[in-house]
Amino acid sequence: MNRLTNSTRVFVIIGITAVLLIIYVARLYSLQMRGGEVDEVLANATTTREIVEAGRGDILDRNGTPLVTTSVSYNVTLSRDALLEIEGRNDVILEIVRLADEHGVSYRDNFPVTMTAPFSYVQDMSERQRYLLDKYIEFFHLDSDIPASDLIVWLKDHYGLDYTTPLNDARRIIGVRYELEMQVIVNVDPYVFAENVGTEFVSILGEKGYPGVTVLRSSERVFCTDRAAHLLGYLGKITPEQAEKYEALGYPMDADVGQAGAEAAFEEYLHGEEGLRRVMRSEEGAVISTEMITEPEPGDNVFLSVDLGIQAAAEDALKKTIDTLNSNRAGDYVTGGAVVVLEVGTSEALAVASYPSYDPSKLLDNYAKLINDPLNPVLNRATDNYYNPGSTFKMTTALAGLRAGTIERYSTVYDPGYYDAYAAYDFEPVCWIYPGGHGELDVVGALKHSCNVFFYWLGDHTGINNIATAARDFGFGQHTGIETGDIEGIVACEEFKEEELGEEWYAADTVMAAIGQSYNLFTPVQLANYAATIATGGTRYGVTLLHSVKSSDYTSVVYEKEPEVKYQFTGKDREYISYLQDGMKAVVEPDGTAGEMFGYYDIPIAAKTGTVQSDATATNNGVFVCYAPAENPEIAISVVVEKGGSGSNIMGVAKEILDYYFGKEVKVAVISDGVLIP
Known about the structure:
Elements: H1 2-32, H2 37-43, E1 46-52, E2 59-60, E3 66-78, H3 80-84, H4 89-102, H5 127-139, H6 148-158, H7 167-185, E4 191-197, H8 199-208, E5 213-223, H9 229-232, E6 235-237, H10 243-248, E7 256-258, H11 261-265, H12 267-270, E8 275-281, E9 287-294, E10 301-304, H13 308-327, E11 336-343, E12 349-355, H14 367-371, H15 394-404, E13 413-415, E14 439-441, H16 443-449, H17 452-462, H18 464-473, H19 494-500, H20 507-513, H21 524-536, E15 539-541, E16 546-550, E17 557-560, E18 565-568, H22 572-587, H23 595-598, E19 606-612, E20 621-628, E21 635-642, H24 647-661
Parallel strand pairs: 2-10
Antiparallel strand pairs: 1-8, 2-3, 3-4, 3-5, 6-7, 8-9, 10-16, 11-12, 11-21, 13-14, 15-18, 16-17, 19-20, 20-21
Helix pairs in contact: 1-8, 4-7, 5-7, 13-24, 15-17, 15-18, 15-22, 16-22, 17-20
């Protein structure tokens, strides 16, 4: 693959060079045909220095499969200084604009005034347009509240446009002159008139020999997959908030930088270093020759930890499960979900899926529609949304109880189907199988059957402070380390309720927090890392999307990500975690809460189901965590489905991922909606 990539780049570069040489040779030939005029042209020539864009590095998955690459194209730039040197500058600008229109070339005009009279400011003015307009008005000491029509009148006079110039043509000339002025006002150089233009338009410009017009090699990001939309991100112009940061790094202020996802997280590797070239122009501004002063250095290539095959399996399984659940309902439909797959022992993200999703190559084109979609497909539910963990939290409460000495491995609690310690206060929560009960259970049996009463009692006798401490040790309530960013979530505790809500903490809060309800709110990526931490026996790693970075030509490793230990359970904690492992293994036994799906599965796994009541009327959320193989774990998975019904309903998502990972035949697996398993 590397050889093919390098060969393709070589041929593209050769082609670009050939086109540019043809333009320059044609121009020189034109000059030479005038014989003695050549010396005069060279004598009056001016020399400027121009930035040469560096090729952006590729983004690939851990196996080297391209996810985002760069295609080479041409940009047309206009030089303010060169155009100001000629008398008919406005006529030249208008001719270039008309030529662009004739050839279907879109050109940059960010002047936020309507294109036709009566003139007014555009209603959808962007933040950047407002920022540049304010700078322009400030620079020329104009009234900050100047009406658009008055601004046009001032600009016509400022740019030497008389009454004979039709208003629509005047507006088009003003738009270009405005952009050129920004080269001085906010140090945007050069003004890229048109991006990604074809060779036909480039050739015509070369033949015309317009002063101040330069054709530069450019590039465009190409998505090689429609997967991992929430991870890959996109490029955009430097925003006002980013200006100071990137100016300090030496970026041109009109540079494209990563605005989200991997493009933003790994900008330092992907960007490369711009080059510098010397350009000689005739008195009229036509390019005579170019000389490279500093060669641009292409960006490095970033290998994500994601496996595209696992990512696809996760996305497909999530979508199919949600579609199946919705097809069996007459209302209260599933609104979304997320899946995270981590490598045990490193916490490298093998897949991060969020549903609904979108085509990353069309994000900017469809952005307005996407952000107005009530299902919010732009939201990365895996990292930027949090959920009650439900019964998947019971391993945390178990650890807290073991640590505090509330229970030992074989201590039992009797479950009659309800917890009546606070019945006198009209608070008597029940077990999920009420009116039945589980009877006597130890901690492993309580996890196996997801006994609420066992954990009501355990939480009540262990205390919320001990539970909250165990939760934080597992990484809840804090960032996981994933480079694209995530929210911290909330650990239910007295401080949160008192400081954030201004309310007193009650014993009932502790009882409900012990089974993963109350104010506990965690992200799917935190839940996956929780499962991975238990799988390791007590080592919590920072979650990462980065596998390695290689040089632009793929010949050397620039950086290789090493696992980062965030927390290490030691001493008796590791023994306690082994009990949690036993409980999770028991969950998938034929009579465990995940036994219907995994009781006879070929690969031994460890798991925990969870059901979360979001409100009194809505269908419950489903939560599920697991790791596999149970004895020598390789991957950990979390699944959250909004209104999924229960953890049992959504186990099929994890099963399909495990099927793919272990090379088994993939089948859609969904338990009927309404099965009462937490």
